[in-house]
Fold these 2 entries.
Entry 1:
Amino acid sequence: MPDFLPPSAPAGRPGCELCREAGGTLVFQSARWRVIRADDAAFPAFYRVVWREHVAEWSDLALADQAALMGAVTAVERVLRDGLAPTKINLASLGNVVPHLHWHVIARFDWDSRFPAPVWAAAARAVEPPPAARLRVPLEELDARVARAVAALAPAA
Ligand SMILES: [Zn+2]
């Protein structure tokens, strides 16, 4: 796993957890964005693409930067679709809790605990066997595939 590269001063914000730490299992990091896997047992194939500098809103990014970030989001989505054949991919950018620009890329399955509601809804059912055991591809292999896919877009930092 790569080492977390914090925002260059003075772009970081004290007290922002995505400026201070990776925010999950760090899968790949370029100079401008990183991909992490959220460590969420209910949703094991839950990745985030995080802009490195502290930016709160999508429209704060220049168009070229939006395109670069969306390229990474798209690459992660493609890996999840190809590897896991999910019922649906969910893309979301909220930032209500941590207002540091990031996109959620989440593989959803009709058996998951909240489907068809958003992952942030209350659980509707228990899932057995555990979600990670139901994936077609082990998480370590999925991480490696994601890292390879996004490495084609930008060099590692
Ligand atoms: Zn931040």
Entry 2:
Amino acid sequence: MELGDKLELLAAAARYDASCASSGSSRRAYGGLGAARPTGVCHSWTGDGRCVSLLKVLYSNACRKDCAYCANRVSIDQARASFSVEELVRLTIGFYRRNYIEGLFLSSGIFADPDIVMDRLIEVAKTLRERERFGGYIHLKAIPGCGNKLIEKAGLYADRLSANIELPTASSLARLAPQKSGAEILGAMRFIGQAEAASKEDRNRFRGRRGAPPPFAPAGQSTQLVVGASPDDDKTIVRLAAALYGRLGLRRVYYSAFIPVSADPRLPVLRSPPLLREHRLYQADWLLRFYGYKPEEILGEGESNLPTDIDPKTAWALRHPEFFPVDVDRAEYYELLRVPGIGVTGAGRIISTRRESRLRPEDLPRMGIAMKRARWFLASGGRPLFSVGVAPSPSALDPFRLRILLADAPKGMAACGPSPASAVPQLEFSFG
Ligand code: SF4
């Protein structure tokens, strides 16, 4: 198979991995220099907030396993191909020199023993780093079941490692991906977390001195969860994500709306991928990571799924009228973050402005506060902001009215049906 055809096939096969959002380009070079193929280049965010474009491909789309939700499962009759180490190195360096990409995202089907697959991925990264002196971003998939020594080696060449947990409960994994082992996936994650911590400690000992050992996966580890392929509810997913952040030190959990790629009686029949559910889970994830919410606060008592009509932060605010109004002149940083319409930047600006001068309500929009939402939950000078300029109404804070007013179902996203009430609500994976 020609290298260009291989690239097309193996970049398309990688597009279901949500670790970075795909944005293929179809630029043509009419008499100019360079041309982009409409495959393979996607964007990802680094830890310091920069957006980097990556060549996102599989080493091979051949796989011995038969996970029901996967486009590369062994039982699908389709063209299969594998790169050689040399081909991938050439492609990466060629794309980098032409300014198409800043890095490589490399995953693979399990075409052989996990040690062999992991070794090939490492070989690509090693050749890029050592022979080609490539300093760009490299994200490698950690292949569950491979030896820890190989993961240790991978972390020396990769900026980020990821082992995909895919399904939120052991029972769903057993049903939809019976050849995968939850224990092996979590084992790989735990080992990466330990190696990362040990590397930081080692390097700290050399602070300010020469001779520090190279960092292990300095951008940390991430994972992906497929949403909607199994009956697991949002409560289970949110609790699992919180445990992955808290106990295994993951930097990011990615949520990928299930896209049916093959018929399988074990899979649900969906009219469209549950994109709104995926969106709400990202919002909930944001609350866990940056807003100081505990997993049990994200959903209300007796709720199994996030609401579709409003975001989870507004839902929390409407469930807790006793918390509001928050006084913009006195509230602490994390109290401000509980106000719908105030984000991390806005809360920081309010705190720093208050140190220097008296805050006026009319200053708030300039600080990035979305007053359309925030005004219902804020007070200033002892007076609720929603009553400024209007006749105070005793029913202004009625949660039912506010819910309708603040509803924001994103356009173009299909609301998914709630998971069955019988879905398993407890955390099944053991982090012991
Ligand atoms: S092991 Fe990975 S590539 Fe293979 S079928 Fe399962 S999800 Fe797909």
